[in-house]
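WARN no homologs supplied; continuing
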Amino acid sequence: MNANVDGPTANHHADWRVRIFLPIGIVLLSILAKTWRITERNGTGWRRLGADRKGWILSLWHGTLLFLAFRHRCQGMVVLVSEHRDGELIARVLHVWGYRTVRGSSTRGGGRALRAMIRELNQGSAVAVTPDGPRGPAQRYQPGALMAAHHANSPVVAVGIHVDRAWRLKSWDRQVIPKPFARIVVAYEDPLMTAGASAREAADDVARFEAAMRAAQQRADA
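OK structure emitted
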């Protein structure tokens, strides 16, 4: 009985805080972002996919989600967001920035999320996925995005960022928030197709896509 009472009460308080602080946080972030100096490297591939209206997956580590979501706002992207409590806050921020969301993860709502991702890709949408989310381990590639890419015959684009000065949250993903006047490099790898004749074989290809994520990070750090 206590659990039933505590849940709605906690959610009520959380909703109250969200209504007050979320708009303030978004405004402050927008002001902060005006000071950032951003350089893009190797962006031709993903921009061509967008121009061709071909479905594709943007693969980013969870710790870079806040900055990259702001970077790609209002581009019509779809984002896979977990059904955990913190996912609801992320989804609200993303909706303000013009994203649509698919809810689910490898640990909750996975089958439903996979089907929704495949549908979006087949319709020509860009789908952003954090393959190490929602709970980590950080920078360990989980195979769900690759299964969706295989079913939809869609390419995956790895992205990494380098920030010369930033705050890092004390969370499992060490979320990056660039400081005022930070210099930021955003680097993309060329679109990469999954290998194998089945979704299971595509899921076994995680090492190659982890390598692509490392290559994107090295490109950003160079």
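Confidence is low (pLDDT under 50) at residues 1-13.
OK
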